Amino acid sequence: MTVTQQAAADRAAESPDLEVGRTVLKTEADGLLLLHEKLDGEFVRALDFISGAKGRVIVSGMGKSGHIGTKIAATLASTGTPAQFVHPAEASHGDLGMITREDVVICLSNSGGTRELSDIIAYTRRFNIPLIAIVGKADSTLGRRADAVLLLPDAPEACPMGLAPTTSTTLALALGDALAVALLKRKGFDSDQFRVFHPGGKLGGSLIKVADLMHVGEAMPLMSQEALMSEALIEISAKSFGCVGLTDKQGRLVGIITDGDLRRHMGAALLEKRASEVMTRNPQTISPRALAGEALAKMNSTGFNGITCLFVTDKDEIKGVISVHDCLRSGVM
User: Fold this and answer.
1) What whole-number distance in Å separates Cα of residue 302 and Cα of residue 147?
2) Strands 104-109, 131-135: pairing kind
3) Domain final residue pick, 127, 157, 189
4) Is the overall model pTM greater than 0.70, yes or no?
5) In the chain, which end has fewer C-beta atoms inside a 10 angstrom radius, N or C?
6) Residues of the domain holding 276
7) What is the pLDDT of residue 299?
8) Neighbours of 255 (CB within 10 A)
9) Which sign, positive or negative, has the C-alpha torsion 238, 241, 242, 243?
10) Over residues 283-300, mean pLDDT
11) What is the per-residue pLDDT across 10-34, written as a single tens digit (0 to 9) for each?
């Protein structure tokens, strides 16, 4: 760090803005701890309503609560609980039709008196649809009408005027996360199911399994260890993996021939040799249930000296073959 950069860093460390930022974070963190202490049986009651619903979770809220509600609906949907956000103003103009008697509704309002929510509240009461409130006042329109009340503690907003929703929205968001994770646990939602909803990007790539990418059947470069090297070279060229797997009489993988093996045995008599004379015995393999990232790490590790493909085996049975290119094309890093 240069002298100029150090001076700028020193000035930043003394800035009143830094103290404001810390105060905001401390205020909201204190609110979360209070919420943690106050969480009670109503949380379990809300979970019972959601897990018992045959339809979807409908989330609604106005203003900043609506933004939080959108994120809660997205988190629920991505963790195995079908959910949808319905804007309360649009609900009053036809979108109530998105809510069915099979659903459960979560409404967010710190005051509990948000006027735009009145039609959704009335609709749930008319058709006996379970209503869960995330609310700051139990003795409010929303709090009194709800079947389960997740009460936000009386924690100060981080806004110095006490007006801008800050602490209250953080608490509501955290409650939504708590509901989603508790439901995930109840359902036994696992990484395989998670990957179905997250196929794209780095996250999707990190959850891909070897079985999803491996080549099987006739695509595998395989032959008997008793084959001549002239035949092995044809198989290597035909299958384009840069290697060939060698099997014994029982069909078990006993060796592999790679470019490195060919270089080490290069000579006039190479084509007349048996594959078993050239192959590397006991090659590295991987399970079809392993993550593709594990396969990539194994191929890239220094100990295996630049291997570009692995045979996939399960209890001595050859299931497929996977290459470094398969992993990289699928976003596995």
Assistant:
1) 60
2) parallel
3) 189
4) no
5) N
6) 210-329
7) 87
8) 19
9) negative
10) 89
11) 666 678 899 999 999 999 999 999 9
85 in a structural domain: yes
Residue 180, token pair as written in the block: 């989603």
Summarised one tens digit per residue, pLDDT across range 195-207 is 555 555 555 556 7
How far apart (Å, rounded) are the C-alpha atoms in residues 309 and 120? 57
Tens digits of residue pLDDT in 308-319: 899 999 988 999
216-254 tens-digit pLDDT: 999 999 999 999 999 999 999 999 898 999 999 999 999
The residue among 55, 110, 62, 50 whose CA lies nearest residue 86 is 62
Check residue 330 and give its pLDDT: 78
Number of domains observed in the structure of the chain: 2
Angle at 201 between CA 195 and CA 206, to 5 degrees: 50
243 pairs with which residues across the strands? 258
pLDDT at 268 over 90: no
Assign residue 149 the CATH number of its domain: 3.40.50.10490
Tokens matching residue 40 = 């009670």
- Give dist(CA 292, CA 323) in Å, integer: 10
Q: Are residues 106 and 228 in the same domain?
A: no
